[in-house]
Structure formats: structure tokens, C-alpha cells
Design brief:
Blueprint: E1 31-32, H1 39-42, E2 58-59, E3 68-72, H2 80-94, E4 100-103, H3 109-112, E5 116-117, H4 120-123, H5 143-153, E6 157-162, H6 164-180, E7 185-190, H7 206-225, E8 230-236, H8 243-252, E9 257-259, E10 265-266, E11 280-283, E12 290-293, E13 299-301, H9 304-318, E14 324-328, H10 331-335, H11 341-359, E15 365-370, E16 373-378, H12 379-382, H13 394-403, E17 426-427
Parallel strand pairs: 3-4, 3-6, 6-7, 7-15, 8-11, 8-14, 9-11, 10-17
Antiparallel strand pairs: 1-2, 4-5, 12-13, 15-16
Amino acid sequence: DDDNLCVVDPLCGGTLMKAQHLGDFMKLPKYNNPMLDDEAYGAVGHFIDPDDVVPQTVVHFHPNEVKAAIVTCGGLCPGLNTVIREVVMTLWGRYGVRKILGVKNGYRGFYAENLIELNPEVVDGIHRRGGTMLGTSRGGSVTAKIVDAIEYRGINHVYIIGGDGTQKGALAIHEEARKRGIKLAVAGIPKTIDNDVDIIDRSFGFDTAVEEAQHAINAAHVEATSTPLGVGLVKVMGRHAGFIAMHSTLSSRDVDLCLIPEVPFFMDGERLPRPVIIPSVMSRGVRSHVSGTDASGNKLLADCGLWLATDMKEKFKARGQEICLKYIDPTYMIRAVPSNAADNVYCTVLAQAAVHAAFAGYTGFMVGPVNGRHAIIPIDVATQTSSSVNPQDRMWARLMASNGQPSFAVGPYSVPKGVTGPLEGRQLS
């Protein structure tokens, strides 16, 4: 049905699913795209074509009318400042927008904080710093108050940088603005260090996180190999998805055992192929007990690393072996660093695509690569589920082939002798 198709690939013009457009519920003016005369794109006119989504010949916002706001929400992630900088630089330098505001400390900053003016001078060099220059927080997504503030301030572009919960808040803002008949482009730029945003190939900051985790793994390896019965244990980010742990293990080559939330295990049973683990890498969501929720509604997990470290010491001691275990938790050090070169490039592409799509009249969307092609994705589709490691996938098989660890998968070849009844996973000792 052609009525349900909409271009979702901003560079190649592919059509996959319906994306919200302001023209669906209001009459929009048409303007020549200022980038037709831009030297960055003028020499490559095929980038500006009516058959492409963005940038295209006609836009639906005049630069003089645009008042843009940028907000960062949720936890820290490498690359936040790069995205902020590139949104500002694209609005200012490519489209000629002169009214750009930064929202302080997350969603509640729309109605509880003074907004700050942003321009190329203000954002110069911020990509070299970790964190976010705007500040961030969890929760505070009171949709009516946010849209009241947006309407009062005359904001018509909102760039929302955050993870799954943040993007659900962006969808609520879009729906409320549509209900009120406000001409507001709501652009989501997905952010999660865990790489668990669904549909897109990867999220920004993930490459940096994997790279930074190597320092902790290397330290654990040195500690473990420098003493008899040495054991190194490293916990990395990954509340419900073990992508960082899996990719850190693959890139390190020094990890004997990788534990992720997607592959359950027991602590007692058959012995591992190697007598000493040098070192182990685990995702923070591994066998963690829930102790309430945070302001964003995420489950608060107990420290699985301390639990595993204590349990391992006790079990080896019961066997008459005193292991020398070093537990390293670099999680918050990893997420606080600036983005690396690859993530900086990726953040630039995401930010520019978001601005182009907003000027083209799209709203209630996220940007990101799908099978290698940068796309406009309806937020309501992208936030239905989250992504996680598939233990039946080739990447997990590659990890097992690389470090020789067992699969821990439940099956006829993984049930320990003498154990009956349902199993959560293979036993570990």
C-alpha cells in the first residue's frame, strides 16, 4: 500500500515504512533549500535532489523562523558533546539559523531551568571533553509542561539526544504537539553506551566504550598473570545487553571467559577447560538482583561483580585454593571519556542527518544506520523493543572460537551430571 510507505533513507531515497511528517496534519510552506547555494554541497548537486529525502530541494522551515532547542537526557555516553556541536554547526553554518538554545539538565530543564544560547563559538572544542556541556538527568519527562514551555518560547525544532526512555519521551512530546496543532519538528538522536537501541546498526559511543575497556582488561591480565592462581575480573556496562563485554573480549584476546545477561549460568558444576580465569569480563546485568527503579524507570541492579568475586573466592577456598582475585570496575570511567575518532565521525553524520530531516518537515523520528544506510526511523517503531546479543549469532560463535569458553547454553550436552529439573544455564566453576 503506497499510502503506508515513506522515505526513511535520507541519503539514498529508499522506502521502507511510514515516518511522521508535519505535512500529514498541517499545511506547510515551501522554501528553497539554503544548501542549494552552499559551497559544501553545491559542487555535488546530486546530494540535493527531489527524489532524495534530505537534504532536498524544498524545505518547510525558513532559517529566520527556526528556533531550535537541544537537550541531552539519561546517562553519560562518549560523543554527546560531539553531537551537540554538530547540530549547532549544521544549523548555523549550513542553514543560517541564528536562534539555537541549549536545555540544561535533561527534560526538566525545559520548564525548570534557564536555557542557554548556543553558537559556533560556545560549542568550539567541546568534542574534546567527556560528558555533556548541557548537563543531563533521568526522569523529568512531564510532557504537558515540556510542550507548554516549547510553545511559550516559540521553539519549533527540538533535538533530543538520549536512549530508549528518552526517545519514548520524545514521542510523547511529538504526539502532544501534534494534538495541539503546533508546527514542531521533533528529532531524536539515539544514545546508549550499551548499544541496545533496536533497528539501528549501532549507537554512538559504543566503539569508544569497547576501546576504553581494553585498559581495564589489560590491567586485569597483568594482575592475574603476575601471581600464582591469579584471577582478573572486569565488569563493563551492559544492563540487559552484553555487546560491550562481547566486543571487548573479542578485541582483547586475553579474556578466558565472557559473561553476559543473555547467557545464564550456574556457579557450581563441571570444571572449565582452563584451571585459572585470566581474566573474566562480565556485563553489569549478569545475574543481578533488582532493587527498585531509577527516575527513568530502569531497574536498579545490585553489583554483580562484587557478588561474583566474593562467590569465586569462597568456592576456591572451599577446595583448598587461595586465589588472588583482582576486581576492576571501570564502568563510569568508560562512559565519561570523550569519543574516539570513529565515534566522532559517526556523531557528525547522525547530527547532520537529524537537522536535514527536521528542515524537510519530518517529526517524531530517530536517525541512524540500518544495514549500513542512514535512515529516518519512526520513534514509535524503534522503541517497541530493545536489542540484545543473540547467543545463536555468528558473533557469539566467533567469541567462543577465539577464547575457547563453553557456551553455557541449555541443551543435551550442557546438563551437569546429577542435576535434574529446569536449568537456567550451564554451571560455572
